[in-house]
Amino acid sequence: MRRPLISRFATLTLALGLALLPAAAGAVEPGDEPTGVPSVPVFSAPEGDSIRAREYWLTDYGFTDLWQKTTGEGVTVAVIDTGVDAQHQDLKNNVVEGYDASDAGDSRGWEGLGLEPEHGTLAASLIAGHGHRDPDVKDTDEPGDPAGIIGVAPNAEIMPISLEIGTVSQNRKSIDEQLPDAVRYAVDHGADVINLSVGSDKTSWPQSWDEAFAYAEEQGVIIVASAGNRGSGLTQVGAPATMPGVLTVGGVDQQRKDSWSSSSQGISIAVAAPSESMIGAIPNNKYATWAGTSASAPLVAGLAALIKEEYPELTGNQIIQRIIESADDAGEPGRDALYGFGIINPEKALAEDTPDDTESNPLGSMREWMSVHRKAEETPTAEPTEEMEPVHEEGEQLQDEAAPVAHRPVEDSGILPFIILGGFGLWVLIITAGSIFRLNKLGQRRR
Question: What is the pTM of this model?
């Protein structure tokens, strides 16, 4: 039988728990952790601009240069995660009222849920953090305020949609229900991009997800998902990052090499982005260092927002095309299982001459996948023995098949010599009987 979905998504709780690290300086004392964020190392905002200086990806990947013409303004990014602290000093006014798909928290999606309630705030801050005022920090020409976290698309709008992952509360909705409900809400309420920094340890997904992801595809909404992390036990990309049409993001270190602990591998990876030595906002105006593709995906979601503002006439499929066409090839030539099409190149992704003429999603179609695989599922077999589900593109069965009954091979049973001797004796008997019969016939003729 298929494992319960809560077990599949429990890997998310482990991933962040292993990735969060205390800052080198300014660590808070025990008991000073933010409310509702148990056992998470955090640090208070230090004086000066040291937080901003830790965001190496802003300058190393050229995001700051792009802010002269695009900041993501007018673009809505839905963060389907564990909830977002809308009152954080680096996010306030950039977070609209969203939705709680779990029915367990704040109806606006503004409350952290589950074992990792800070996770959604971390992701949102990398997309649309705008910093905050600090008398000790000088103003800059950058958008937003000079202190604290600034996201790659600092003027984008965050739509938080909360899930409850890894815990069980009264009247809890399953992930089978929560995730498709969240995706549909995002599409129906104007999201241009959906960020999914959540994942599972299975390449397959429940059929209940199909229609919601196909609906997002048909409405032109871009879905960006994290590839998972080997450091938390994920040796391959898991759903929803394996679903057709999803822009799956792997992780690289500061030297732009594939990250062993803070990334994964799989044929569905589309591009790679920074995943190590990351820093982000967590509830109660505090910050944490972290690692993993949960941080890589928001950078790509923010990049999509920048492209959307600069080229508002482009479809979601064309924006995806720009991101993968502009990526710097790494690893094996062409697309590979570690970097996908390559490492993101934001400047090239915004360049006028980057191809964006596709009509279809370069990463596949969920609706087409359904027409082939789900249709096959509904076709009755000649001798049905159990309910079977379609095989995913990566070759993993959606539902575990019953193992065949093992039989001891006849050559290892001890009876093979007797079978051979018996067969040989029977053959000799037949030859002898035939010979006697022919001799009798010849004797009768001579008489």
Answer: 0.78
Span 19-52, pLDDT tens digits: 343 332 233 233 332 222 333 344 555 544 589 9
In angstroms, the Cα distances linking 350 to 176, 297, 310, 346 are 37, 18, 8, 6
- 332 exposed, middle or buried (CB, 10 Å; 0-12, 13-18, 19+)? exposed
Residue 346 host element (H or E): helix 346-350
Is domain 5-370 annotated with CATH 3.20.20.140? no
374-401: average pLDDT: 42
* 170-216 tens-digit pLDDT: 657 888 999 999 999 999 999 999 999 998 889 999 999 999 999 99
The residues that bridge with 247 in the sheet, in sequence order, are 224
Which helix or strand (DSSP H or E) is residue 444 part of?
helix 416-446
List the catalytic residues: 81, 119, 294
The answer to whether 191 touches 159, Cβ cutoff 8 Å, is yes
In the chain, where the domains are located: 5-370, 412-446
First-to-last alpha carbon distance for the chain, in angstroms, is: 80
Pairing mode, if any, of strands 157-162 and 222-226?
A: unpaired
Token pair of 40 as six digits: 């998470």
Cβ-Cβ contacts under 8 Å for 390 (sequence gap 6 or more): 372, 373, 374, 376, 377, 398
In degrees and rounded to multiples of 5, residue 43 shows phi and psi of -145, 150
